[in-house]
Amino acid sequence: MKAALFYTFVFISAPLCSTLNVPFTTTSKFPPQCEISRRSAILSTTGLLTTLPFVSSASASGGATAGKYTTIPIAKRRYYGRVQEAVHEYLMMGQAVVKGDMSAKVIQDFFDPKGIVTVEARNQAVNGQCTKKDQSCKGAEIRDSRYNDMETSMYLLGNAFRFNQQKAPDNLPTVKAAKAFFKDLDEMEKNIKGKKSSPQKAQSAYLRGLEKLDLYLDLVELPPTDSGAYDKEFDTRVAANARI
């Protein structure tokens, strides 16, 4: 190991000194001109060696470090758009909720089980050829409510904010905050569509939910509801914003 380190060091250092037209041998001391290059080479070599055990450990662990190094960035690309769009539509209901108008289109659309397309229809043709007997190769789209999609995407995003795989999802602060918000959101839905609907109870649930939603947004590194960041619509496609 020591021999490998030495020759790796030589391999990196020799070209650095050669650029300064300074003779270099494995037995000679470093001249002053190569002092900075030598230090850079040591740091480079050390960095190279320290990364090797990390890669091996991550591979062997089955992704135990994924929450810290991979899962969170990937989850942001997958779910940030959906969560932000859901917050946008949730806030859009505010004016109608304050008025007590639970029949408003913006509220009904939010809870409509066919309100949004969650999975787009896909062409199932093979190499441009439809192999089905009825020649119907266009698949069916899957629809759901923004209400349900908000709960799903918030849970999945919150579950990604972990630094190991040992903690159960329900014990994560992000998931706890999401579920606290879901409780008020579910109560609001029940008091809008239920047999014993109550606009007053729906209003109270909505206002309580706002505070809990802000706590969740802070935990998943998103702006608060009063920041103005949600005044626009968001692209909900996976990795629509590749760099987050």
Name a few traits of the molecule.
244 residues; mainly alpha; two-stranded antiparallel sheet; 8 helices; 2 strands; 3% strand; disordered N terminus
Task: Please tell me about this protein's structure.
The structure is a single chain. The chain has 244 residues and is mostly helical. The protein has helices at 2-18, 35-60, 66-92, 94-99, 105-111, 146-160, 173-193, 199-219; strands spanning 116-119, 142-144. Strands 1-2 form a two-stranded antiparallel ribbon. α7 packs antiparallel against α8. The protein is globular. The two termini are 40 Å apart.
Largest sheet: 2 strands, antiparallel
Number of helices: 8
- Gyration radius over CA: 28 Å
Q: Which percent bin holds the helix content?
A: 55-70%
Report the count of strand segments.
Answer: 2
Mean pLDDT: 75
Helical/strand content category: mainly alpha
